[in-house]
Write a structure and sequence with these properties.
Blueprint (H helix, E strand, L loop, with lengths): L1 H17 L3 H16 L9 H19 L2 H15 L4 H16 L9 H10 L5 H13 L8 H9 L5 H23 L10 H8 L16 H23 L6 E4 L2 E4 L2 H19 L4 H5 L3 H25 L1 H14 L2 H14 L2 H14 L4 H7 L13 H9 L17 H22 L1
Antiparallel strand pairs: 1-2
Helix pairs in contact: 1-2, 1-14, 2-14, 3-8, 3-11, 3-12, 3-14, 4-5, 4-11, 5-6, 5-7, 5-9, 6-7, 7-9, 7-19, 7-20, 8-17, 9-20, 11-12, 14-17, 16-17, 18-20
């Protein structure tokens, strides 16, 4: 079993270094070793999760093609520029809402340069709002009803509804983000006193020209694309929260309600179709935006990594549960630590959920406790090489946002640890209250 685990970890590490689709295809290599060398029986690939992500990404890509994301960025820019002195508090709320609505943290790219410039113009250290804004875009993944991670968790937890997950994760992650924002308000020296900023000003590397987002080509189409997407998201939450609303069918003499994966896939594909048909958007334009390739990378990552992880866990379930069951049951927070560490390696909340949560269930951890621990999958800020982290560093022209001398002492470590820790603690309190 230890040799198999070593193969799994090597596949994950190499895949993470390759980047892009590397994580998913290396999962396939690890799976080949488990099957052909060690003789493990392969489990079924996570088809439903992959199809749900494809459907959501299709709708989000069509909304982006219609100008919906640009329209949302313009609204965010207005809010931030009207309240520049509160940029450290407002910025994470903006990126949180973007991710919550779209289901992917990659939508934060568009608003990060606005945050950096508003902070610089107000003489607020850009590291403060940028650091927590990136973390908020990650935390919102575990609160969004249409994110790949939430969808994956919903499909794994028995007897749990979408409303059960959201009633815990939404307030928990919001509290975590706000606490992280308040802790970020005094990070580092004031901008005017920062030596790196002073050096860049002296060398003429920083201009006083304001950077603004481009105008939306067709505001009407952009607004309607956002409305259609939000309506589909609202219906998903409604069907997920009230099971009686779902269509029922007679299966072997029993009334069976339609499952949530199918409902999510149908509603999101329909939303994408409505945006293309009603607003007359070119479907080719949808796949050429930034949302579609990022989403497809997530699908491939889940395909390979989750399939490999499932096969390893199912093939060694007796040894795994026998060796750590008593420890985890007496200290369930340790499982949250396992989620956090695996998310650092996998660079994907959804892949982490699919790979590790089945083990938690096998260990006898309550599904509701797993919901409280869910924000622990947001650990990929720990090593500062995730795309949104790198983008935030590059957008800060003042040089205050960056990676420290010891690598791990970077601008995202403190807000990330605070937001994640507070979200888990808040979630555990909420679970004890509601369940």
């Amino acid at each position: 079993m230890l040799l198999q685990l070593l193969i799994v970890l090597i596949a994950i590490i190499i895949g993470a270094r390759l980047g892009g689709i590397g994580l998913g295809v290396m999962g396939g290599v690890g799976l080949a070793f488990l099957i052909f060398v060690f003789g493990l029986q392969p489990t079924a690939p996570p088809i439903d999760v992959m199809l749900m992500i494809v459907a959501v990404i299709s709708a989000a890509s069509c909304m982006q093609a219609a100008g919906g994301l640009d329209y949302m960025v313009k609204l965010a820019e207005k809010v931030l520029r009207k309240n520049p002195s509160h940029v450290t508090i407002l910025s994470p709320i903006v990126t949180y809402l973007f991710t919550f609505i779209a289901g992917t943290g990659h939508v934060a790219y568009s608003v990060l340069p606005v945050i950096a410039e508003v902070a610089r113009e107000t003489k607020i250290r850009p590291e403060r709002p940028l650091g927590i804004a990136v973390i908020a875009s990650q935390q919102a993944i575990t609160a969004s009803p249409i994110s790949a991670a939430t969808v994956a968790l919903l499909g794994l937890l028995p007897g749990v509804t979408l409303f059960d997950i959201l009633i815990i994760t939404v307030p928990a992650t919001l509290v975590g983000v706000l606490v992280g924002a308040f802790c970020s308000m005094k990070v580092g020296k004031e901008l005017l006193d920062d030596p790196e900023y002073q050096r860049r000003v002296k060398d003429g590397l920083i201009s006083n020209e304001s950077v603004k987002t481009a105008d939306v080509a067709n505001v009407t189409k952009a607004k309607w694309s956002v409305i259609i997407f939000l309506l589909a998201t609202f219906l998903i939450v409604l069907f997920g929260s009230i099971s009686e609303m779902r269509p029922t069918f007679m299966v072997e003499g029993k009334a069976v309600a339609m499952d949530m994966p199918s409902i999510i896939e149908i509603l999101m594909l329909s939303a994408a179709a409505l945006i293309l048909l009603i607003l007359r958007i070119d479907g080719i334009k949808a796949v050429n935006g930034s949302v579609f390739p990022a989403g497809m990378q997530a699908v491939i990552a889940i395909f390979g990594i989750a399939w490999m992880g499932d096969t390893f866990i199912k093939g060694n379930i007796e040894q795994l549960t026998g060796s750590i069951e008593s420890i985890v049951q007496s200290m369930p927070w340790l499982f949250g630590l396992a989620l956090f560490v695996m998310s650092i390696l996998l660079y994907s909340q959804a892949a982490t959920v699919r790979a590790i949560v089945p083990l938690g269930l096998a260990l006898g951890i309550s599904p509701y406790l797993l919901i409280a621990l869910f924000p622990a999958v947001n650990g990929y800020f720990f090593i500062p090489n995730y795309p949104t982290v790198v983008a935030a560093i590059n957008f800060d022209r003042t040089g205050t946002t960056g990676i420290g001398k010891y690598v791990l002492n970077h601008s995202f470590m403190m807000p990330g640890l605070v937001a994640t820790g507070v979200a888990i603690a808040t979630g555990m309190i909420l679970v004890s209250v509601f369940f």
